[in-house]
């Protein structure tokens, strides 16, 4: 495992991983941005005199990747911006290849993009998630002949880019989707220099039989040949995971019209790619034409997978239970503009949690993520953004086919990918005046056929569109046992019923929301209101906080304690379902959404096991206790400072661990040794009843697995005083380090008793020269947030000045706190 994680950092050095060009550089710095439309391209390039009206609009300096909606997506006081935005920079462009081509390579920009060289539009693209290139060669050459090149622009070339995420019914994804349709150049942008003849794409198809004895590799290439060169020499080299050359081949080619077959060869007993040992080969290409050479490296993996009909999933002939989660490209403070370092951190955390499968919802994601899945041994379901809505017109349908084609061709070589997803919740009416199931079925069949034509080796799948379940290879129904419908104890029976309806079943999306740092002494209380036996499939309106029948999503407390029980039950059941291919928890990380403004953290889907800034919730460790082998132990309640109850009442202390046995110590006294049994719910039998009196408690667990011992320790207060409704808020500075102060608000009743079940919504504000850390979409960095157990935290940069923090809530007096410099 640790060797795999170290290998991740090699991605920071690899430029050609997914067939980048011969010479390329990321264009991260030197950009300016304006968050509005311009009157025309001239406004981006005209000469500007200081103090003159031509200064408008004012441009701000930014670096790439950059998202329009870095903070407004989770600003509780506005709806996120959807419209155009402009970027500009001046580049020194000098292609080293005689008659070579100069490209701008976009790894992803949302959602409609236009590219200009000075005032000349050179390219445009519709779609926020697939990669594409703009050939700027001719426009650059033309601009260099203009006198402006040397006078106004000092020998540099002005590059201007317009991105637009305006609402558009005839564009995927639907604005009904439960995620933001972001705008901006939110993935890396590269300046690429190609020789006259270059490779556009490589299709390296690596297969192996079930026994792993005989591998086969077929390599095709698609060329860029603007000048119609007639002759080229290609050298193909295959290098095994240990760096040993397996074979070399050369080929002279003179035709560049279609995807050219470069080599087809057998590989005896190849080293296999698996989730435990994700071994990768390298295909190296050297293309020489007209005295110029183009080099590329493509990583591949040999593996054999199968979704067994009416059975489990196998990889290389052995059953693998897919232990999965989901990912949105979204993060605190940057929204979609995650850096490579952030992506590495995120995927390492998933592997640390025990994930071996991920569904990338609901769009093609960064090439960096796919590279990381290849390296870490994480199997992938990747899908196009046909999400919610029904079926648009010809433009809409063409975009879906184009994005499916691009996704498959751009990510074809990744051994981690096993499923191409064709859609999500396409049974959702409302985007169009017509909702015709037969037309949706017809289009789904077209996508399914296209996917199999482009890549017969991988399965197709959709989630939640029952009237199309027979079209795709693998189907995932909607099962939200214990959240949107039913009780979590119904999970196995409902899953088996759905399994029996499909040839190949995979359960993606389960779980529920939890407000980080909110805990409960009676978390399952809402289940008493739930009708049993009514199924667990999510239906229209279930996600609403209003109306309809009783459901935990509406009537529960949204505590980490409840979700801990729900997850614990699901995971212990999955160990006793031999027919199960696997599941994927929704999602790994909290993410922003425009349709949930009233959540405890406004505009955030809070179903993640980590917060939007990577802060782990308690549920992270529950997954780890079931899915990992490295010894670990975690006492539930690290973010639960005060428990409550009657004097002498017994309270359950739970330990989540993958160790064979664990011993709990309470204030230094042993409360006995427990053996782990995954089927002994909750906490796999690692739970203790501790009689508690008012005061301070230190809990320590000592757990053993073989010869390895691990420990964990927490301290909690126990409150026996009962409280009434909140009567006042009290602010207090709890820490300050390096100019960053953290304040905490607590809700008390009229008798000064802390209200430990208070979920009041509070609003933080700041007066002074500091900066409130807000609009991050987390429980500790939102200006509007619901209390968790009668408290909430927020931080500020003091800037070494006096600041006044205020907190207010409807019906309670506003509280102020002076932060001295």
TrEMBL record:
Keyword presence, Endoplasmic reticulum: no
Similarity comment: family membership: Belongs to the glycosyl hydrolase 2 family.
SUPFAM superfamilies xref list: (Trans)glycosidases (SSF51445), beta-Galactosidase/glucuronidase domain (SSF49303), Galactose-binding domain-like (SSF49785)
Signal peptide bounds: 1-21
Domain Glycoside hydrolase family 2 catalytic: 308-486
Protein name: Glycoside hydrolase family 2 TIM barrel-domain containing protein
DUF4982 domain segment(s): 648-709
Organism: Pedobacter ureilyticus
Annotated PANTHER family: BETA-GALACTOSIDASE, BETA-MANNOSIDASE
Domain called Glycoside hydrolase family 2 immunoglobulin-like beta-sandwich: residue spans: 199-303
Keyword Signal among record annotations: yes
Domain of life: Bacteria
Domain Glycoside hydrolase family: 737-814
């Amino acid at each position: 495992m640790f060797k795999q994680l170290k290998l991740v950092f090699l991605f920071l050095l690899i430029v050609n991983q997914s067939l980048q060009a011969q010479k390329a550089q990321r264009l991260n710095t030197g950009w300016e941005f304006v968050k509005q439309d311009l009157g025309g391209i001239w406004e981006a390039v005209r000469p500007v005199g200081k103090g003159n009206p031509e200064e408008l609009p004012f441009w701000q300096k930014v670096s790439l990747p950059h998202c329009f909606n870095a903070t407004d997506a989770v600003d509780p006081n506005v709806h996120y911006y959807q419209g155009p935005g402009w970027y500009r920079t001046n580049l020194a462009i000098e292609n080293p290849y005689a008659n070579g081509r100069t490209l701008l390579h976009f790894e992803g920009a949302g959602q409609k993009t236009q590219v200009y060289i000075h005032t000349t539009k050179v390219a445009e693209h519709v779609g926020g998630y697939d990669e594409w290139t703009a050939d700027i060669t001719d426009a650059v050459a033309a601009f260099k002949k203009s006198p402006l090149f040397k006078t106004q622009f000092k020998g540099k070339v002005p590059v201007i880019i317009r991105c637009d995420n305006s609402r558009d019914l005839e564009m995927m994804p639907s604005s009904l989707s439960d995620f933001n349709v972001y705008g901006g150049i939110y993935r890396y942008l590269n300046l690429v220099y190609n020789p006259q003849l270059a490779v556009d794409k490589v299709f390296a198809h690596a297969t192996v039989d079930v026994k792993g004895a005989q591998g086969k590799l077929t390599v095709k290439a698609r060329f860029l040949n603007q000048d119609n060169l007639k002759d080229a020499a290609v050298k193909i080299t295959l290098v095994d995971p240990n760096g040993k050359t397996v074979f070399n081949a050369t080929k002279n080619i003179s035709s560049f019209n279609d995807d050219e077959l470069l080599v087809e060869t057998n590989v005896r007993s190849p080293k296999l790619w698996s989730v435990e040992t994700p071994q990768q080969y390298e295909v190296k290409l050297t293309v020489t034409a007209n005295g110029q050479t183009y080099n590329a490296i493509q990583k591949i993996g040999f593996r054999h997978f199968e979704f067994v009909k009416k059975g489990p999933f196998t990889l290389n002939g052995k059953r693998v239970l897919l232990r999965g989660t989901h990912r949105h490209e979204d993060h605190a403070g940057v929204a979609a503009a995650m850096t490579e370092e952030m992506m590495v951190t995120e995927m390492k955390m998933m592997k640390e949690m025990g994930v071996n499968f991920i569904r990338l919802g609901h769009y093609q994601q960064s090439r960096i993520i796919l590279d990381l899945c290849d390296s870490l041994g994480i199997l992938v379901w990747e899908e196009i953004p046909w999400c919610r809505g029904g079926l648009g017109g010809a433009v809409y349908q063409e975009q879906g086919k184009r994005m499916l084609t691009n996704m498959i061709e751009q990510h074809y070589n990744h051994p981690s990918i096993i499923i191409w997803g064709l859609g999500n919740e396409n049974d959702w009416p409302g985007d169009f005046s017509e909702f015709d199931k037969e037309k949706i079925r017809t289009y789904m069949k077209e996508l399914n056929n296209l996917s199999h034509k482009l890549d017969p080796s991988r399965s197709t799948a959709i989630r939640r569109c029952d009237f199309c379940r027979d079209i795709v290879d693998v189907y995932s129904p909607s099962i939200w046992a214990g959240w949107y419908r039913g009780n979590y104890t119904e999970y196995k029976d409902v899953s088996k019923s759905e399994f029996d309806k499909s040839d190949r079943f995979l359960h993606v999306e389960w779980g529920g929301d939890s407000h980080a740092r909110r805990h409960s002494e009676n978390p399952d209380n809402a289940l008493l209101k739930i009708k049993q036996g009514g199924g667990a499939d999510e239906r229209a309106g279930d996600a609403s906080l209003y109306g309809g029948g009783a459901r935990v999503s509406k009537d529960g407390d949204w505590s980490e304690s409840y979700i801990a029980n729900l997850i614990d039950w699901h995971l212990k059941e999955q160990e006793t379902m031999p027919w199960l291919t696997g599941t994927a928890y929704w999602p790994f990380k909290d993410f922003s959404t425009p349709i949930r403004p009233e959540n405890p953290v406004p505009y955030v889907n809070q179903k993640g096991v980590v917060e939007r800034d990577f802060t782990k919730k308690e549920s992270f460790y529950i997954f780890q206790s079931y899915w990992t082998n490295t010894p670990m132990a975690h006492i539930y309640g690290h973010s639960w400072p005060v428990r409550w109850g009657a004097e002498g009442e017994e309270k359950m202390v739970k330990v989540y661990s993958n160790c064979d046995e664990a011993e709990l110590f309470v204030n230094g006294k042993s409360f006995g040794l427990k053996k782990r049994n995954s089927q002994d719910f909750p906490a796999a039998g690692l739970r203790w009843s501790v009689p508690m009196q008012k005061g301070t408690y230190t809990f320590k667990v000592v757990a053993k697995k073989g010869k390895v011992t691990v420990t964990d320790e927490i301290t909690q207060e126990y409150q026996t005083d009962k409280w009434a409704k909140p009567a006042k808020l009290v602010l207090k500075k709890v820490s300050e380090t390096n100019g960053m102060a953290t304040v905490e608000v607590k809700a008390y009743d009229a008798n000064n008793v802390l209200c430990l079940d208070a979920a009041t919504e509070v609003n933080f504000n700041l007066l002074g020269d500091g900066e409130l850390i807000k609009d991050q979409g987390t429980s500790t960095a939102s200006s509007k947030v619901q209390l968790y157990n009668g408290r909430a935290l927020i931080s500020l940069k003091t800037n070494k000045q006096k600041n006044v923090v205020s907190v207010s809530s409807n019906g309670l007096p506003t509280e102020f706190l002076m932060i001295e410099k």
